[in-house]
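User: Modeling request: complex.
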Amino acid sequence: MPPKTTVQQFAPRLIAWQQQHGRHHLPWQVADPYGVWLSEIMLQQTQVATVLDYYPRFMAAFPNVQALAAAPQDAVLSLWQGLGYYSRARNLHKAAQQVVADFNGEFPCTRPQLERLSGVGRSTAAAIAAFAFGQRESILDGNVKRVLCRVFAQDGDANSKAFNDTLWALAESLLPPAAADMAAYTQGLMDLGATVCKRSKPLCNACPMADVCQARVQNRVAELPRKKAAVAVAVLPLYWLVLRRADGALWLHKRPQKGIWGGLWCVPCVPSLAQAEQWLAKAGLNLADMSEGHTISHRLTHRLLQITPLVCDFRLPENSAIIERDGEWVAKADLAAYGLPKPLAAYLAEIR
DNA sequence: AAGCCGGGGCA
DNA sequence: TGCCCAGGCTT
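Assistant: Request completed. Predicted assembly structure:
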């Protein structure tokens, strides 16, 4: 049981702190639920600094939910290029169509209804409900978990449902009573975690909770929240078959919606030289036609891709089976309209 | 409950 | 290099 006084003081202190020291000029701090929703999706597992780069371009291209719903998926994915977790973009697009079709083009205002939208879970739904509609719903993201684990000295297995449920219950017990405070309160949770109660080197001297923070009292700030068990990083070889026409056009195909880089456009991609050979044979080519580029290391959260480009500058054989395949020649000038995996975009920029 | 999904910031 | 970030979906 957390100390009662700490629970009582949490919200008013946080709100006062946010108003004085929090962030107030982020471009998505608007009344428009569409803008709030877009920012929340972009900010999933992505830092503010990164989103600041993408959000304005996306809003300019799709200023409202109707525009987004009507766009082709590739237009959405190309604007998402480089942000990662591309299922977010696919779900975002789908959710826009849900809002238009199921909610008459108006965002729903309650958390349960918001959770029906693709890509919107409990925390994101709560954020939209709180920011755009003043609903008394609590978020629980990485920042909030860290703040709560410290202020209330919560020591548990971050992967366990039981511990997660405890944190949800704690978060809800802390909500301010007044709807009018929900925006500042919710923003305060995020701001405190991001700028003061940081993962490493937290600025406890600047923290409004310093005198009641149980982790601080117990001298356990550095050990809470407890780290998750480390995930093994698998090293995976990958070969890119870069087929380039004399005019510079590249052979690309749209990747399946599921799996890595889902829905993005990419050069053919195989895990072994044997499979590269098989693929090439169907296009009337073989490994001897390919020149090997330098290997690119691309690290994801849980895997390390070792990508070796195999490049062929060739004139397409008249009867090559490649023209029967699921893919197309893409002119250099048109590449910007195609969402590409980050390392491929970087590689293509490098070889021009 | 566990696995999957990108890319980047930071120490 | 390891860890984590305004998480959610699938199995």
